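Teaching soon. Invent one.


***
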Amino acid sequence: MSETKEKIKVLVAEDDEYFSSSLLEALKRRGYEALGPAQTGKEALELAKLLKPDVIIMDIRMPEMDGLEAAYQINQNGFLPIIILTAYTDPDFLRRACKAKVLGYLLKPISIDELLSSLEVALTIGRELNSREVEIKNLREELEARKIIERAKGFLMDAYNMKEGEAMRFMQQEARRRRVKLKDLAAAIVEVGEELLKKAKK
């Protein structure tokens, strides 16, 4: 049992007790932390929020809420690798699976070994996608921070007849003195500047 696999939590959402029991045992033997089973789509949704698994193996046909709706709702709050199990090739199911951003769509009957191989692939792809999402989020935040800093520089240059370099140095020094992030100081300057502009227009 590897140290890496001990940390991987797999939630099983399957209302077939025999299959879910076999799958949970197989996961434990392979070194995964097996969670569940959730026997309804609603329960899968609740356990995903509570237990924060690394990946979910989800049946489609379940009471209360089907697996595709549960998968869709789970991935509305951040991406989580999900493998869908089904005995149906309904085109509508495939369309909904794509919309729910699932990483696997497997047809029953399927062997445990085939399922676990798909699980490893889903985990690898999921890590890459999550890493890219984090990078994109960081880039967006950095771009937004730059926009705010540029606006703050503009206010200082106009209000105090500063040159661009002087305005930037002033903000950097003030941020260090106040022990705040440069972006937060810039946002405060922009807020004050906008208030002054509003008053000047009245």
